[in-house]
Write a structure and sequence with these properties.
Helix 10 links the parallel strand 13 and strand 14. Helix 3 crosses helix 7, helix 3 packs across helix 8 and helix 9 runs parallel beside helix 10. The relative contact order is 0.10. The strands form three sheets. The chain has a six-stranded parallel beta sheet, with helices on both faces. A six-stranded mixed beta sheet has the order 11-12-16-13-14-15. Helix content is 34%, strand content 18%. It is globular, with a radius of gyration of 23 Å. The protein contains 13 helices and 16 strands. By secondary structure, the protein is α/β, with parallel strands linked by helices.
Length: 400
């Protein structure tokens, strides 16, 4: 159900909240003054297009626009990127916690910012992890913006619960850039140096700092997390956090749930859960994080990704690929066939129980069993969390 507020040009009357559901939910929306858009409601859907065409005064808003317009503090740090935004936002929070600063963490990470809006005081800090769908119609930018990286993602409607997607790579990037687009002089943007050419062309008004990988001691598994640490450390230095507090927070920080998380070691075989890895680029980085032989759990729903480079990396690093059935999996198999990755080196399975069973039987002492699917979870699983939880449940059932 999507709610709308119909005011008729007068002061909003809470008794005049209208709603639409089922087949009628997206029709005749032009009768409303405001459309309050959730991130899963596409801006270019027929209902919104018709409403904008027939009602020139209609206002399209969102939870993030409301939050920015009403937030008591201007000390807002917003983090986005294709991957690593949750880890980076959480690490910034850990550094602020180590420094005894009062802060709130929310956004795409699972806590709705409007839930803590009334608790925020003028000198507090707010850290927001924001997806491209939360950013695409944002009319505000934070004091400190962070973009961790950018890969081709969300270019096909893979999630039935969130059918929003970007028409092309350019529109995806421009949604991310909204994080910086409304910044003013005195604001700061902390950016992956690989995006320098894109940033220069768009002529941002804020101060741009390109972060460097960090070599600080950390509890994070995965070399690519050096980028996330580098981004978080750069933000901390902008705020004025002491070097000692930064080092302590980074040293004690561990992988987030389902982000290359060590589940268990059984018979000297290490089981890692990165169910959050839903792109081929992130799975490639996972594979490069280990020197051991790898049994890889891979595949799922199709998000329009290109699997050519992933197939080549699999051939170099993976002794056995356990394929979770799905449309994306079918495309991966075609790429593996092209480079002669033999059928004997892969198994197609139809449940997580079967996947872990096959992986544990084929792995040897010293190997890594890695759940890093390069695909969305939908079809066999509700979401990446269910997929990761089922993996962990099956691993914990394994006998020593």
């Amino acid at each position: 159900i999507i709610l709308f507020l119909q005011t008729g040009g007068q002061r909003a009357d809470l008794n005049k909240i209208g709603w639409r559901s089922e087949d009628y939910f997206n029709k005749e929306l032009y009768v409303f003054d405001y459309l309050f858009r959730s991130p899963g409601w596409p801006l270019d859907c027929p209902g919104i297009k018709e409403a904008v065409k027939k009602n020139k005064k209609i206002i399209i808003s969102s939870p993030m626009n409301i939050f920015f317009s009403l937030c008591e503090t201007k000390n807002i740090i917003s983090v986005s990127g294709t991957k690593g935004k949750g880890t980076t936002a959480s690490l910034i929070a850990a550094i602020l916690r180590q420094s005894k600063k009062r802060f709130f963490l929310g956004g795409n990470i699972g806590i709705a910012p409007l839930a803590f809006l009334e608790k925020i005081k003028k000198n507090d800090w707010v850290i927001l992890e924001l997806s491209s769908f939360q950013l695409e119609d944002l009319k505000f930018s934070p004091k400190i913006a962070v973009i961790t990286n950018l890969y081709k993602e969300h270019l096909a409607p893979a999630d039935p619960h969130n059918p929003n997607y970007h028409k092309n790579y350019k529109s995806y990037w421009l949604a991310k850039y909204n994080l910086i687009n409304w910044q003013k002089k005195g604001d700061v943007a902390v950016i992956n140096p690989k995006l320098k050419s894109k940033i220069i062309r768009l002529k941002a008004q804020s101060k741009i700092i390109y972060f460097k990988n960090s070599n600080l001691d950390s509890g994070l598994v995965g070399e690519y997390y050096r980028e996330n640490i580098g981004a978080a450390v750069t933000v901390a230095k902008v705020i004025g956090i002491s070097e000692n507090n930064i080092k302590l927070a980074v040293k004690n920080f561990k992988n987030l749930e389902h982000r290359l998380e060590l589940v268990r070691e059984v018979k000297k075989i290490s089981y890692y859960d990165n169910s959050f890895s839903t792109t081929p680029e992130s799975t490639i980085l996972d594979l490069k994080s280990f020197k051991q032989n790898i049994v890889l759990l891979l595949g799922g729903a199709d998000k329009g990704a290109d699997f050519k480079l992933l197939a080549k990396e699999i051939k170099k690093r993976v002794k056995l690929t356990v394929l979770l059935a799905g449309v994306g999996t079918d495309r991966i198999i075609k790429e593996l066939d092209k480079i002669s990755y033999l059928p004997i080196q892969r198994r197609l399975v139809f449940s997580m129980k079967e996947a872990v069973k096959v992986a544990s039987r084929q792995a040897s002492a010293g190997d890594v069993v890695l759940l890093s699917t390069a695909c969305a979870s939908f079809g066999m699983f509700k979401n990446y969390k269910e997929r990761g939880n089922l993996f962990q449940q099956e691993v914990k059932k394994l006998s020593d």
